Amino acid sequence: MLEKTAASLEPCGFQRVVPGASQSFRTTRQLRNTFWQHGANYIELTAAWQSLMHGTLDPSMGSTSEENRGTALSASAFLLDFLYPSGTVALMRRFSRDASVSGRPGGLRYGQRFTRIGPRPYTSSLPRRQVKRPETELANSQEAPEAGETDTVNPVDTTNLEDNEVPQTGRALDTAVNGVVRDPGVETYETLTQPDTPLNETDDSSADIHIEALDRLLESDSDDPEDADRVWYHYRALKEPLQTIYVERVLDFLSKSGRISDAWKISELFHKVPLERWTSSVFLEGVTAEINLQNDSRAVEVFIEGLQHSSIDVPSLVDALDLILASALRSDDPEKLKALWRHYPEMAKRWDFGGITSQLKRVSSIPGLAQIALDFQTLGRQKLQEPEGTGLGEEVLDTLQRILVRRALLTCADSQVIPLLDVTKDPLAFEEFLRSVSTRGKQELGTQVYRIYRDLAGSTPSHAVLHEVFKAHLRLRTPMAMKYAELETLWGDWHKFYTTPSYRAFQKYLAFYATQGETQRVYELWTRFIELYRDEPGFSILKADDTFAHLLHVHAVRGEVDEAERIFNDISGKFGIKPNTHCWNILLNAHAKAGDYDGAISTFERLLSTGKPDRYSYGTIMQMAGSRGDLGYTIDLYRQGLARGVRPNDAILSSLVDAYCQNEHLQEAQDVCVRAVRKGIVVTRMWNKLIGYHAVRRDLAAINKVLELMADNNVPYNEFTYQQLLVGLSLCRQSQHALNLLAVALKDNIFEVTPAHFHIVMAALLINGQPGPVRRIHKLMQDHGFPSSSVTLFQVTQALGRWRKLPPKQRTRLTPTEWLGKTLRSFNQIYGLDNQKRLGRLSPPAPKHGRPGELLGKNTEKFQFGTMVYMLTEMKNFLEARQLVDLYQYIFQGRQDSDAVLPLTMLNSIMIAEFQENRYDRVLATWGILFQSAKEEARSADFVEDLPHTAKISPKYRYILSTGIGVMQKMLFNQGDAAGILSLVRDVRSAGFEPDSKNWNHYIQALVQLKEYKEAFITCEIMLMPNWTGWFLVRQNENMQSRLPLDMRRKGSSPRHLRPVATTLYYLAKGYMELDRLSHWSAEAAKMSREIEQECVQVVRAIKSMIRVHSELEYEILSEEDYVDFDSAELEYDDQDFRGEYREEEAIR
Fold it and tell me: Which of these, 170, 140, 169, lies nearest to 152 by C-alpha position?
């Protein structure tokens, strides 16, 4: 094929510049395996090709003589050097620029002068020994030859030598030294001898030069291929005795190049080393060279000699076995494997195959090894048997099969793991596979394999396997009940196989149960742990860093600050041990979990004075401060940490993002994320927080920009990124889009779907008043293998409780009483309660006093009980609501008459129930508790009494009283107490809280109806009108965009986006016209009317531009005489259904 390709080259481009061959192509062009093994990887197209494309050559080159045709191939080898006669080589050398030894010339430009390059240490066209030539003849060969001059070429050629032949001294075939072309002004290669010049052709002066250069290169320990070529060149220039001195060092140096083309050199050098001078490295390099030369039989011979050589260490022998076995397995010839494995007895004397199998890394990389191992039982054994029955024994074949299985387990498919293990039932194979299941992400498969292994006859899982299986169970996303059962079974295996669990096993189980808040189980394990290891020689368990950490942690998880403080004090008080930073951090985390902000700050200040806070310490307190929005305190902590040498991590930077976002500085928060990426902190969590805050603000456009910025900065999305995106869609009432995104993820696996994603979509449907699909999504979760949890079941309960919003066909299936009963039964099942005797089934709890953070703290129980009480209050089932409140106090606060403060949502629901029952004194008392507790728990760390501009309340909690304010406004309005309404809002704002948009609208409406006109108008002008967008029909008549942008309408649905609703403007219009009528009879009314027109320009303009639409709301608020100045036209009526903020934000949590 190559001959046909060469013959088809264009004659006018190539043949006119290449001298004709003196012999037939068929007799001279012979491609050997040496070409592919030695030179094929390093052949490149020279600059000659570029000159040929121009169609012209340098006229000064002259004709090519026969002498030049014998020039040796340089490093810039021409591709067809092995196909064409020696004249081609001479031509190529003239086209190449001068270069160092083995240097490759750069590209050739048109019109550039051509010259030769230095000799290459080896090429297939260069003989291994040159003919001795007189110095005069050699000097003449360097001059520019005349046309027609020729060299005498030795008729004996080495072209047909076999690859595995090693030339010996005196047997190397000679050939003539080729001449070179010297262009004027171009420096030529200084060395007169070629790389393969024999010993007796180098004089003593040049030998010293070669020795010096060789020593310098060998001492450099370079792995540069160019240096390897230079070493070979200088080595070949030495005399035979000197070569013997350097042979091992040169061999070792060449082996570092890693080039296949150096294998023949290494093989030649290796066979010059006597057996008694073999070392482990020399032995391994020799075997490697023979394998690279595909000379497996010779490699086996060297390997067997190494087995019998006591100076060769076992690791080198195992590496050699790895090379030879991998080569034999890749071959289709079973004789290669048989030739190696028949020496099994000699190998077994040097090592234990069970111990060295894991070191056979090249064997494990063979493609299709798993199938080879599976087929070995039937086909492989037959191929390795001799026809006469004198083949390999069963023990030998069993050992080989175990090796294949163990190595195949590393790369095989998951479906092949158990069949492979079943072939040999080798405990070592089980051990080797199970020890890496977590790092390879095969947790589920690992637990299945372990169940087989633990029941295997005679098996004893190692400590490492038991620890790895424990880790696999933790990472699996299974129901907690199933996880508990599996871990308890594993704990039983510790006792079954070892009687006593290890120190590390106790630590792992203590940490797990502490994380789950299992107080009783932690104390049981901890007590036994101390009893077993208390008297351990040379080790004091009580002084270990994490001995008391588990007891602290279990109370921290449960938010039991008092218990955590008690244990912390006992560490130093009872045991005389100074708490380390780890214990301080757990205590700090206990205050954070309980929502005890003041306690956390106090604990951190104690740590500063007595200990050394680390990044976790700063991260914990900064995250608590940042999540509340205390920007000043968070930045102070950040700077303090930098001054103490604490390097920022993702937790510290995330707290800055929280603090900025809570104060509406979203651009600054984004800048923090971008700067973190530039510093190499690529953490998706920070960006997810930024997306979450945009979601709460109903700003989908900003979410999209952040996602694009993440892509530009190579910040990967994760499952929590999509959670925040679903939250944004849910709050923007895009439940269908959220559901579609979830369906696409399940179908196309664009991200890992978790139960949290389903919960967000279900919450979105509940927010949008679509409880019907919630139960269908719950079934979809179960169909995809997601277990039902308390969160899922509670959302189904919420859907049942909102039966009034079901389609009529579904709503009429049950009576209201039946719907209520079904809702309560569903809720009771979550907590395992009996409908009739809920309290009687529970054991009496210990009394608990009020704890900090009880009002504003969040957990699943508070949210579910609070939401359920609110739903029952909406249904006007006040009796059941009160029973649930009593039940919550009994279970979670110790007793029904506890002095602990109820959670915020429950207090709001209690106020609503008492208001609807006209129990105003109870409403006022509950409001007092709520208001006072909120002022204490929501107080900002930035507040300084001497600095009035500092915030009293953390920004996160400014609107938490909105529901309570609404109830109080309604109660005071029913009582006709305008002064009380004014005082209520004044007190709330002076304490640092803020009413939301709904509160302000109700406030203005109530003041107008109570004849407090001026206060109502001024409040509306200042608080609401800046965000008013005008009347729909007015914009339409003025040729403006009639419909507001979608993003603006979404933002308008946020309770914190202050704007007037149509109802408020109707009441203000009514009050304005009442004032106008009174101004004719009352000077005070006239004065007030003038002041309103002067100070409340936007409100007056809105009233005067109002157009009558004849809606029911108009007739309810405005009388007929109020329409005298109104035009009869349609008016956009925007009566937004503002719900309490907790109903939207808590539902998606």
Answer: 140
pLDDT in tens, 1099-1118: 998 888 877 777 777 778 87
CA-atom Rg of the chain in angstroms: 44
**Number of continuous H segments (helices) and E segments (strands) in the chain:** 60, 4
In 3D space, the residue among 362, 351, 353, 335 whose CA is nearest the CA of residue 399 turns out to be 353
Name which of 385-394, 776-785, 1059-1068, 1088-1097 the model is least confident about.
385-394
Span 972-1007, pLDDT tens digits: 999 999 999 999 999 999 999 999 999 999 999 999
Question: Up-side HSE of residue 1003: CA atoms within 13 Å toward CB?
Answer: 31
CB atoms within 10 A of CB 844: 9
Residue 22's region, left for phi above 0, alpha for psi from -120 to 50, else beta, is: alpha
For the chain, the first-to-last Cα distance in angstroms comes to 71
The gap from C-alpha 893 to its chain's centroid, in whole angstroms, comes to 40
Alpha-carbon distance values, 877 to 801, 821, 907, 917 (Å): 12, 11, 16, 11
Tell me the C-alpha distance between 300 and 1067, whole Å: 102
Give the pairing of strands 1127-1128 and 129-130: unpaired
- Three-state SS for 681? coil
Q: Which residues lie below 8 Å from residue 232, measured CB to CB, with a gap of 6+?
A: 121, 122, 195, 250, 254, 262, 265
Identity of residue 360: L
CB 68 within 8 A of CB 90: yes
Q: What is the pLDDT at residue 111?
A: 40
Residue 788 identity: S
Distance of CA 630 to the CA centre of its chain: 30
> Phi/psi at 526 (nearest 5 deg)?
-65, -40
Residues with Cβ within 8 Å of 982's Cβ and at least 6 positions away in sequence, in order, are 1007, 1012, 1015
Residue 723 burial (10 A CB sphere; 0-12, 13-18, 19+)? buried
* C-alpha neighbours within 13 Å on the C-beta side of residue 562: 5
pLDDT at 1044: 63
d(CA 433, CA 404): 13
pTM of the model: 0.68
User: Are residues 452 and 424 in contact, defined by beta-carbon separation less than 8 angstroms?
Assistant: no
CB 483 within 8 A of CB 476: yes
| 1008 contacts 1065 by C-beta, under 8 angstroms | no
Please tell me the distance from the alpha carbon of residue 903 to that of residue 549, in angstroms, as a whole number: 30
469 Cα distance to chain centroid: 23
Alpha carbon 851 to its chain centroid, in Å, reads: 38
Q: Which amino acid is at 114?
A: F
What is the sign, positive or negative, of the torsion defined by CA atoms of 824, 825, 826, 830? Answer: positive
Q: Show contacts of 24-32: CB within 8 Å, 24+ apart.
A: 25/83, 28/85, 29/3, 29/82, 29/83, 29/84, 30/159, 30/160, 31/2, 31/82, 31/83, 32/124, 32/159, 32/160, 32/163
Query: How much is the pLDDT for 52?
Result: 41
How far CA 716 is from CA of 682, 684, 713, 1057, in Å, comes to 9, 7, 9, 32
Burial environment of residue 1039 by CB neighbours within 10 A (0 to 12, 13 to 18, 19 or more) = exposed
Helix%, strand%, coil% for the chain, nearest 5: 60, 0, 35
| 255 band by pLDDT with thresholds 50, 70 and 90 | confident
Is residue 689 within 8 Å of residue 656, measured between CB atoms?
no
The residue among 956, 870, 859 whose CA lies nearest residue 907 is 870
List alpha helices for 357-462, DSSP H: 361-364, 369-375, 381-383, 394-408, 414-424, 427-434, 443-454
DSSP string, 897-940: T--PPPPHHHHHHHHHHHHHTT-HHHHHHHHHHHHHHHHHHTB-
Helix-helix angle 225-236:204-220, to 10 degrees? 150
